[in-house]
Design brief:
Distance between the termini: 86 Å
Oligomer: single chain
Largest sheet: 20 strands, parallel
């Protein structure tokens, strides 16, 4: 027997098998699949210059077959009575791993509801949205109108063990990487009834190295028994996201627990973890936040609410926030009957760890509601601008001091400061409280009027709501 021939044949067969599995020969990997959809789309070829034109629900659903192609809406799409199996209840499986270009061309997708498919998740994270997960994609010129109520249910494996997944939820995308979002309008209501380690945004749940421009969100986000969450009117949680000329006009309400970790809620971003993050020329206008935080066993956890951002490590420039906030805290029956947790209501940002300049905060009212025992809460605190301003440079900042008993922020030692001796700019006597490590860098803060804002950026003439407008 010629052993050399046998061994050579085995090596060739083995290599061929490996190549087939890797998509070099034969079967291609999921991201490289090319499915013939010429019988589905009447117009287009799927290229950037000649995108497939979507005119009905079936054509929208078929995007998942070739997720790296280019698509454009040819008219409005109503998903109200559509799902994959043709039943009459709203039911949409988010499109997985989209890396193409999606142009709404000014049209609206409405009536989207969600169903969770265990096979549709990416890694150990559940992603919910029109798209579950995007990477190097572009989504633009789209209007999205949703009315979704979705309940997270704990998944159990074959051995009966519970599987706890992170949850990324956004009307457009659950989890986005290196994706560009432009000229999108978002309307409607999303209710998340349960969730652990949740990042929940009006547009995107979690955004890594993404760009947002002219994204206008009027989403109402309702929270039900969420734990350790990051909630934002546009983005729930971000890492190095750039946000420019965006706006939020909605509301965030509901119940959450800080049992396992702190919660961060913001009108634009819940939590930005990178110092390279940027918010520029972005407005939160007349937003309404109403949150109830029930306690747990972790003493250091808390809930941070900011009209613009909850926790922000990057830089913020030429931006403003206005609205009202209500906070309640208490204990509930069961395992969370432990430690009461603080709730911080802040006119601009909860924790600011980067530079903020040429911006304003107008917290019209902070309602520090009674706790669950029917007594005035000692754990809900209000701040005109921010609670924590650590290692931050503040310059040309305007804020509204509506109550002399409401605090502005802390000094670097955590002690109350009633006058800023170095910069005597406060027009109304008030208590100043917060955690400011480097408050010596605070410059030109004005409580009444907006004269110190840059008139090349802001129209400072009196407007209907009394707020400056971006030029």
């Amino acid at each position: 027997m010629n052993y050399k021939i046998i061994i050579t044949t085995l090596i060739i067969c083995l290599c061929a098998g490996l190549f087939c599995g890797c998509g070099i020969f034969g079967k291609k990997s999921e991201g490289d699949k090319r499915v013939d959809v010429s019988h589905i789309y009447e117009t287009g070829s799927g290229t950037e210059s000649d995108p497939y034109v979507i005119t009905d629900c079936e054509e929208l659903n078929a995007v998942r077959l070739n997720p790296s192609y280019s698509y454009k809406l040819g008219n409005d799409i109503d998903l109200t009575n559509y799902n994959e199996d043709g039943s009459v209840r709203a039911n949409w499986v988010p499109i997985k791993k989209f890396s193409g270009k999606f142009d709404g061309d000014g049209h609206t997708v409405k009536g989207m509801g969600w169903t969770y498919n265990e096979d549709n998740k990416v890694s150990d994270t559940m992603q919910m949205g029109l798209f579950a997960y995007t990477n190097k994609a572009t989504i633009k010129n789209l209007k999205l109108n949703v009315a979704i109520s979705w309940k997270y249910s704990v998944k159990v494996d074959a051995e009966g063990n519970e599987k706890a997944y992170k949850l990324y939820v956004g009307a457009l995308v659950g989890e986005a990487h290196d994706t560009r979002f432009q000229n999108c309008d978002l309307y409607g209501v999303i209710v998340i009834n349960e969730g652990l380690m949740t990042s929940f945004g009006g547009a995107v749940g979690y955004a890594d190295s993404c760009y947002f421009e002219n994204i206008n969100s009027k989403m109402t986000l309702k929270l039900g028994a969420l734990h350790a969450c990051n909630i934002g009117g546009i983005v729930g949680e971000s890492d190095c996201a750039r946000i420019k000329r965006c706006s939020y006009y909605g509301s965030i309400t509901g119940k959450l627990s800080s049992d396992t970790d702190s919660n961060f809620i913001g009108g634009v971003v819940g939590k930005e973890i990178s110092s390279s993050g940027v918010i520029e020329k972005t407005i939160v206008n007349d937003a309404m936040f109403d949150v109830f935080s029930y306690g747990g066993n972790r003493v250091t956890a808390a809930t941070w609410v900011g009209l613009l951002v909850g926790y922000y490590k990057g830089s913020i420039k030429d931006s403003g926030a206005s609205g009202t906030m209500t906070g309640k805290e208490g204990l509930v029956s069961g395992i969370f009957r432990g430690v009461r947790h603080d709730v911080y209501l802040c006119g601009f940002g909860g924790k600011l760890l980067g530079r903020v300049e040429n911006s304003y905060a107008y917290a019209k009212k902070c309602n520090m509601g009674d706790n669950t025992d029917g007594q005035e809460s000692r754990y809900v605190h209000a701040y005109d601008f921010a609670h924590t301003v650590a290692e931050t440079l503040l310059s040309n900042i305007a804020y509204y001091d509506y109550d002399e008993n409401i605090k502005l922020y802390n000094d670097r030692n955590g002690d109350p400061v009633y006058e800023h001796v170095n910069y005597a700019v406060y027009q109304k006597k008030g208590e100043i409280l917060g955690d400011v490590t480097g408050y010596q860098n605070v410059n030109n803060i004005l409580t009444l009027g907006y004269d110190n804002l840059d008139e090349n950026v802001w129209d400072l003439a009196p407007s209907k709501d009394g707020l400056p407008k971006l030029l």
